[in-house]
Amino acid sequence: MSFKTLDDLPDDLNGKRVLVRVDLNVPMQDGAVSDDTRLRAAVPTIAELSDRGAIVLLLSHFGRPKGQKRPDMSTALLVKPLSQLLGRSVRFIEDCQGPDAERAVSTMTQGSVAILENTRFHAGEEKNDLELAKAMAALGDYYVDDAFSTAHRAHASTEGITHYLPSFAGRAMETELKALERALGNPERPVAAVVGGAKVSTKLAVLGHLVGKVDHLIIGGGMANTFLAARGVNVGKSLCEHELTGEANGIFDAAEKAGCTIHLPYDVVVAKEFAPNPPSVRTCNVHEVAPDEMILDVGPVAVEALADVLKTCRTLVWNGPLGAFEMPPFDAATVALAKTAAALTKEGSLVSVAGGGDTVAALNHAGVAQDFTFVSTAGGAFLEWMEGRTLPGVAALEQQG
To answer: Is 380 a catalytic residue?
Structure first.
C-alpha cells in the first residue's frame, strides 16, 4: 500500500491553501454534539497544517440533505465545538465551491482554519460530479483526505477532487491504513478473525473473503446460529436465517480448501425471552437447546477455548459482538474474549484491530478499547475493507503514491 502523507507536503506551507476532507458528520442532540469522536480524530491533522502555516479549508458532509440547503444540516453548527477542541478560532464559509467561497478564502491568512458548507448541499457530491470536484479543487493548492469513514464512497469530495490536486493522507487516515495493512494486508501469522452480529446475510461477503485470508475464523452472535443449523444443530427459536444454510455450508467448504479453521460455540447461554437477566437463563451444550429457547451468548467453556486460540495467534481482526452484549448476562462472552485479546496486545504478543459501530460499543463496554492496537470508528468503510473491496477514496490516494 503506497500513498503520500503530510510528510510528503512541502515543509513551507505558509499561505498555501490545503483542502482537508474530514468526517464531521457527528450526532447531535438538542443542538449540541452528543459524541465528538470524529471531531477529535480530525484535530491532529488540522493543527499540524495550521502550525505549518497553511490556510486549512475543511470539507465535510453533515447528515443527508440530498442536494437541498437545510439550516439544520449546515456545517456552521460545528464551528464552535471544533474551535473549542482545536483551541483556535475557526471560520465558516457559506459554500464549498464557487465565486463566494473563492472570495472568502482569499481573505484568509496563513495558519487560519475554516469549515466550508456541507458538501452534500450540492446534488453533484454523491454523484461524484467532476465539475463540482473541479470547482472545489479551485479553492486549494493541495488536497488531504483524513476521513477513512467516507473512503468507501466515490464522491466529489473524496475521489473526484483527487484528479485535480496533489493528494495526501492526513494523520488519522495514515494511522488507519497502516493498521489495516498490519491486520490483513501483510499480517503476522497466525491470524484470527472474530465476526459477530445478528445476521449472516449482512456479512456473507466478509466471511467469504476472510476464509482465504485468516487461519482461524471465530463466528459469534446470531449469525453463529445459522452455521450451527447448517451443521444439523436444532437452535430452538434462536435468531437464525435457515434459508442461508446452503451459503453457510459453502463457507465451510471454502474454509476447508483454504486451510482456515472455523470456530463455532459448543456450549451456549440460552433463555426463553429476549430480555435482560431473564429467569429462564441457563448454559447448555449446543445439542441441548430446547425448542422454546433461544441462544443469546457463547458459553464459558467455548470462550475459554477461543481464548486459547488467540494465545496461539499473532494478529486479530474483530468485527461484531459474540452475543446480545447490550443485555446482561449475555455480554459475558464478548467481555471475556475482549479482555483476553487486550491482555495479549498489552504484553506484545498480538496485533489487534477492531472496527464497526457495535464493535466499538462492545469494546468500550468491556473497558478495553484503549488496549487494542487500533480501533476503527468507521462503519461501512471498515466492513467493505473486510470484504476485500477496493475503497475509492483509498485507491485515489494510492494512485498518487
So the answer is: yes
